[in-house]
Write a structure and sequence with these properties.
Blueprint lengths: L33 H6 L4 H9 L2 H11 L11 H6 L11 E6 L8 H8 L1 H15 L3 E6 L4 H16 L15 E6 L9 H8 L23 E5 H13 L1 H5 L11 E8 L5 E6 L4 H8 L9 E5 L19 H5 L9 E6 L4 H15 L5 H18 L7 H11 L9 H21 L21
Parallel strand pairs: 1-2, 1-4, 2-3, 5-8
Antiparallel strand pairs: 5-6, 7-8
Length: 451
């Protein structure tokens, strides 16, 4: 996966001052190995952190920068780091990198791992120093075979250079790093399900509290951060808080840059590092080039399949959490999808809900039974066999599976696009109701799981 360019908005070349995540990328999309990475100022931030900064200073710097998680939830990274215990006697603690990138329409972490593996390792090294963790794991989606190969080579290069292992940079600090490939389950993107999987258990989310910072992998304090999140750390340490905050556009409450993209029937689908606060219209028109000839934009999702649909009129929203929140959904991963006017929304939602139903861990009843129920109803509407009341039943499921109603956030994310699709395109759902169908009270229609 390579970064692409299009239009006047992307004429400025990437530089260390404006594109901290991507300026080291090669034009031929080949990996940047250790010698080249160090020639491009790689590991300079790690050397600064080890030589000039105490662990608490690193934590405070990341907290002051306003860096938020880039996996979709957007929790402040420095605050999460601050939850780790201060007790020096708790010397067994872990740092986990969540690289289980299974959100449909999202591939940003894959690009970072395949082309800039040492940037992730440097980010984890600095983070480990800050959190006093002696061992780290990159929990990688099993299908990312190339990423695994490149990360393992980069780990060996870093070990040979004394950047991993014992007495790193002569500091007396030890840190081991391992690449762990998972079996490929969407639910492993939830941090406690990831921890269970790493331990060899079924990937079910855990009850919180206790939070991983207190009781994580193998019962020890654990911090879990996303790939893109960790890749921001070297630039923050190397260039400072004020510089990092100044990267975002005016009006954005989020700081720094973000890997954003657009897919679908656009002229130039791709992935770009852009400042928070850029408008979705700039992303869609100046970078993605707008829709291909013969297609019209019907709606779009701002950041993965678990975010709500928005209309073309919402393209002037700024791309940051609060900006997208103002128009009714979430920023998510920041990789948008354009839906063209040839797509039937009932069929699209049936496909999405089949994915989410299959990826449910099955632990809690609303998710285990509610998502297959939505698939059954959507399939009936898609085939023109729906009954009166089916749409109301679907809306009831959106409420029953919403935030706070289930054990984790899987089901709320699964039904958010469903609720928004009915809101904006209800006639398409109504068209699937069979003529003269008998009215059935909402939520009374029976479900046969797997039917």
């Amino acid at each position: 996966m390579t970064l692409t360019s299009f239009g006047p908005a992307n004429r400025i070349a990437r530089s260390a001052e404006t594109h901290p995540l991507t300026w080291r990328l090669r034009d031929d999309a080949e990996p940047v190995w250790l010698d080249e990475y160090q020639a491009k100022n790689g590991y300079a931030a790690a050397r600064k952190a080890f030589a000039d900064m105490a662990a608490d200073d690193i934590v405070q710097t990341v907290k002051d920068s306003g860096l938020k998680g880039r996996g979709g939830a957007g929790f402040p990274t420095g605050v999460k780091w601050g939850l780790m215990p201060k007790d020096e006697s708790m010397n067994i603690r872990y740092l986990l990198c969540n690289a289980d990138e299974m959100e449909p329409n999202t591939w940003k972490d894959r690009m970072l791992m395949e082309q800039l593996p040492h940037q992730l390792i440097e980010g984890m090294l600095i983070s480990a120093r800050a959190l006093k963790t002696y061992r780290g794991y990159i929990f990688l989606r099993g299908e990312y075979v190339t990423a695994a190969k490149h990360l393992n080579r980069a780990v060996e290069e870093a070990k040979a250079a004394g950047l991993l292992g014992k007495n790193i940079l002569g500091s007396g600090f030890d840190f081991e790093l391992f690449v762990h490939t998972g079996a490929g389950r969407y639910i492993c993107g939830e941090e406690t399900a990831l921890i269970n999987s790493l331990e060899g258990r079924r990937a079910n989310p855990r009850s919180k509290p206790p939070f991983p910072a207190a009781v994580g992998v193998w019962g020890k304090p654990t911090c879990v951060n996303n790939v893109e999140t960790l890749c921001n750390v070297p630039a923050i340490i190397g260039n400072g808080v004020d510089w990092y905050k100044a990267l975002a556009r005016e009006g954005s409450e989020d700081h720094g840059t973000k890997l954003m993209g657009f897919s679908g029937k656009v002229k130039n689908p791709g992935l770009w590092e852009l400042p928070f606060g850029i408008t979705a219209r700039e992303l869609f028109e100046d970078y993605a080039g707008g829709m291909r000839d013969g297609f019209k934009l019907k709606c779009w999702q701002p950041g993965g399949a678990g975010t709500g649909f928005l209309l073309p009129e919402h393209l002037d929203a700024q791309m940051y959490a609060g900006g997208i929140g103002k128009v009714g959904t979430r920023m998510g991963t920041g990789l948008a999808m354009a839906v063209d006017d040839s797509v039937n929304m009932v069929s699209l939602l049936r496909n999405m809900e089949e994915f989410f139903a299959r990826e449910s861990c099955g632990f809690c009843t609303p998710c285990r039974d509610g998502l297959p129920w939505s698939v059954k109803l959507l399939r009936a509407l898609e085939n023109g066999e729906g009954q009166a009341g089916d749409i109301e039943t679907l809306l009831g499921l959106v409420g029953f599976l919403g935030p706070g109603k289930t054990f984790c956030a899987h089901a709320p994310g699964a039904v958010e696009p469903l609720g928004s699709a009915i809101k904006y395109f209800r006639p398409e759902f109504e068209a699937g109701i069979a003529p003269k169908s008998a009215a059935v009270p909402p939520l009374a229609r029976p479900i046969v799981v797997g039917a």
